[in-house]
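Q: What does the predicted 3D structure of Small ribosomal subunit protein uS15m look like?
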Amino acid sequence: MPRSWFVQSRFLSFSCFMLNRFKWYNIRRPAIDPKHADPTYYENLALSVPLVQGYIDRLGEIWFEMFSVSRDVNFKRARDSTHWLPHVDIKQLKAEYESVKALETAPDSVKKLFSIEFGRRKDLTFQWKRALMNKVRQNELDTSSLEVRIAKHTALIRHWSKLLSEMKSVCAFYLFILLLRLIFTFVETFHK
């Protein structure tokens, strides 16, 4: 019996020591200020800390604040579909007309007709796939490596998810079924 009391008291004193040594942070703290959503805000804040006594403690406080707010920021960012896909200039020409020499000297009104803006949705999807695949492509001929295939299917899944979030109707259910079908075909390609 005295031995268990000693272990409990040692644990209690260790817990008290840990409580005084490290600050507690709230992991579910809401991000009220919009500047917390900026990815470089905390980096700039840490770089602006002067090199005086308490420098390390101040950096720790900044890290705790960043960590406790990041959960809420990520949840808010997850609902915003602009972060899902790379930025594509919709004023550029469609992929099949990029190499046409006559369009280089054509007036802007003609170029606009052959742009992604006046094209179908598949033209925009193709550019998203191309942008994601170019990030991981090892050379120009790399079209079938695992990284490129994952990037291609990621672009397709994110495109369908964005389309579902844009549509607020009954046909969204059918698009969800198509999305599941796409995911299952993606999984089947890796099991072959």
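A (community wiki): The structure tokens above were generated from the sequence. Confidence is low (pLDDT under 50) at residues 1-20. The two ends are 62 Å apart (CA to CA).
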